[in-house]
Write a structure and sequence with these properties.
By secondary structure, this protein is of the alpha+beta class. The chain has a single domain (2-131), classed as TT1751-like domain (TATA-Binding Protein). Helix content is 42%, strand content 26%. The chain has a six-stranded antiparallel sheet with strand order 1-2-6-5-4-3. The longest helix is centred in the C-terminal third of the chain and has 19 residues, at 113-131.
């Protein structure tokens, strides 16, 4: 599903399994480096609020991201890459990320189709591996 520049997929796994598979796929790719992990559910809980399981993992590959930022420094708002894993009120686990083509248009990136296509293919492959 594509909505407003977001690609979302439904996982066939539970929340924890989906997140751990995603993290493992990224960690085992020598071209990628995890920058940060955020547990939004834990953050909400720390101030007494409830939130369904919601975590985001930020990771990057400077060989691909840097040329995009050289083209348009505002791309730094959307880099490093982020993938969100969340469980909705019905218990369905989703995995979502920014569509690189949407980011191209958002930041007016030019002459970087090869990099954008590589990123799109990598994100598709990474997320597919996490949801099966």
């Amino acid at each position: 599903m594509i909505e407003a520049g977001i690609i979302s997929k439904i996982s066939h796994q539970d929340f924890d399994t989906t997140y751990q598979k995603l993290k493992s796929v990224i960690e085992n790719n020598p071209n990628l480096k995890i920058i940060a992990e955020l547990n939004h559910q834990a953050n909400a809980s720390s101030v007494g609020l409830d939130l369904n399981p919601t975590r985001i993992i930020m990771f990057g590959n400077p060989n691909l991201g840097t040329p995009l930022m050289q083209n348009a420094q505002t791309m730094g708002l959307d880099l490093p890459q982020k993938i969100l894993v969340y469980q909705n009120a019905e218990g369905v686990v989703n995995i979502s990320y920014n569509n690189p083509i949407y980011l191209r248009d958002r930041h007016n990136i030019t002459n970087q189709e090869n990099i954008l296509n590589k990123i799109a293919a990598a994100l598709d492959k990474i997320t597919d591996a996490a949801i099966i």
